[in-house]
Structures are given as structure tokens and as C-alpha cells.
Design brief:
This protein has about 260 residues and is mostly beta strands. The chain is globular.
Length: about 260
């Protein structure tokens, strides 16, 4: 990476600030269910996550969203999920209180931060993926730390029986080039956390720019046929689900998203 290290660190900080933990409230305590990424749209705030993270959740009161580096809990306003095997493979949205948009260290993903179309070649992308912290999430008091990042994961076409390129990416795990630490965390708990593409600089000598950090997929499960891969849903499929749920957003989403890669 050489002189680009500082740019990589800036990019991973952006990703960390867009990643949150989703927790289920139970009578017996809290249960961590997975990761999610913020998406800000029309002064409303949503979370992008995997559908199975919300399997069995029946009301917004059962969910909590935990911000990184803060003790703040974010109010959940609504949600819906599409599970594997349904029309949209393993995707979910959660709407939360947009009040956190005022935090100085908060970074929400906007429409400009996605790559959806055929111009994104997953076989050639440089991936930056958010993983769970190696330590167990602390939910009572103290700040939260649950996002470590790896640079250099490869994506591959799915194998027979694990979906098509339209609804599944296979992402290398553990990654071949860790940015922090010598070992990747265990793969459990990464569901919904986001896979990001860092576009290369336009010419030699130009460092990484955080404006080139784009979300491309959502992790959902370990591959059953490739031991070194995680199955991910292309973020386009999440937007197709979101579009079907919010008719009032449809015209703007289609104008902004489906006309570009």
C-alpha cells in the first residue's frame, strides 16, 4: 500500500462510522443479532442489513441499534425483512430516529455511496469489508467497539447451488490482506455489516479518497461449498426490496440509481 496507507485508514474510518450493531431485547437480556449500515434518504434514516438478522422479530420494541464508540441507543421506528428463498434474498430495512445525524462523528451512506449496476465487476473490485471486533460486544455501560476492517478481499462468482451473480457474491474470508492485526475475527456475527469497494486513484501518485468508498453487497452467510468464502447479497437487491416497500421514494430512487452503475 505504501504511501496510500493514510488514505486507506481514512476510508476504513468512514466505513466504521457507518456500521452499527443490531440487538434484540429479551426478558433474559440482550442478544446481538448482527451488523447494519446506515442509509440517509429524504431526512429519514434507515439501516441496511441481512433479512435473517430480523427473523423472529415481531415488533420494533424488540430491537435496539448500538452506535460505535457511544453508549447511545437509537430508537427503532419500523422494519421489514425478506428472507432467503423469498422474492428478495435475505435483505431487510430498519428505520431509526434520524436525530443521530447531528453527531459530528456520524457518517450515513447516501445514494452516491452505492455501486449497483453492471459497471461494478465483482471479480476485479478491491473490497473493504467490516468485520466484528475480536472481543465480545459490551452492551451494559462503556463505549462500544465492534468494527474491524480488512483490505484486499476478493469476490468470486457463485458456485452451482449457491445462487446466481444477480443475487449472490462470494467474498473471500478470511481476507488475504488484513489492515489491522494478524488474524481476522471469527466470521460469526458479520451478517449485514456491508462489503465496500474502494475505487483505485485515477492516476499514479494520487492517494485514496473517501469519496470513492462505495457499498456493493451485504454479507449473509458462510459458503457451504467454498470454505474460504462468505455469501453476500448485491446491494442492488436491497434497493429493489426497499423500492417495493416505499412507493413514495420510487421515482427518485429509479432516477438516481437505476440509470447509473
Amino acid at each position: 500500500r505504501g504511501d496510500d496507507t493514510e488514505g486507506f485508514l481514512q476510508a476504513t474510518e468512514v466505513i466504521a462510522n457507518r456500521t452499527v450493531a443490531v440487538v434484540e431485547n429479551r426478558l433474559s437480556g440482550r442478544r446481538f443479532v448482527g451488523r447494519a449500515s446506515y442509509f440517509s434518504f429524504r431526512d429519514r434514516l434507515f439501516l441496511i442489513t441481512a433479512g435473517h438478522n430480523l427473523n423472529g422479530i415481531s415488533s420494533a420494541d424488540q430491537l435496539q441499534v448500538v452506535l460505535p464508540k457511544r453508549t447511545t441507543r437509537v430508537s427503532v421506528l419500523g422494519f421489514n425483512a425478506s428472507l432467503d428463498g423469498q422474492d428478495y434474498p435475505d435483505v431487510a430495512w430498519i428505520e431509526v430516529d434520524p436525530g443521530v445525524l447531528g453527531y459530528s462523528d456520524f457518517s450515513a451512506t447516501t445514494l452516491e455511496n452505492f455501486r449497483l449496476g453492471a459497471s461494478h465487476d465483482p471479480a476485479r473490485a478491491i473490497q473493504c469489508q467490516g468485520f466484528p471486533d475480536s472481543e465480545i460486544l459490551t452492551l451494559e455501560g462503556g463505549s462500544e467497539s465492534f468494527c474491524s476492517v480488512a483490505i484486499g478481499t476478493y469476490s468470486q462468482p457463485p458456485v452451482d447451488g449457491e445462487g446466481t451473480i444477480a443475487d449472490t457474491y462470494l467474498i473471500e474470508y478470511p481476507p488475504h490482506d488484513l489492515l489491522f492485526g494478524e488474524r481476522a475475527p471469527e466470521a460469526g456475527g458479520i451478517s449485514g455489516g456491508g462489503v465496500w469497494m474502494l475505487e483505485p486513484p485515477p492516476r499514479s501518485g494520487v492517494g485514496w479518497n473517501t469519496s470513492r468508498v462505495h457499498m456493493v453487497a451485504i454479507p449473509r452467510s458462510k459458503s457451504e461449498k467454498r470454505s474460504n468464502c462468505i455469501r453476500c447479497t448485491p446491494v442492488r437487491r436491497w434497493f429493489e426490496f426497499f423500492d417495493s416497500e416505499f412507493e413514495e421514494f420510487r421515482d427518485e430512487l429509479e432516477a438516481c440509481l437505476w440509470t447509473r452503475g
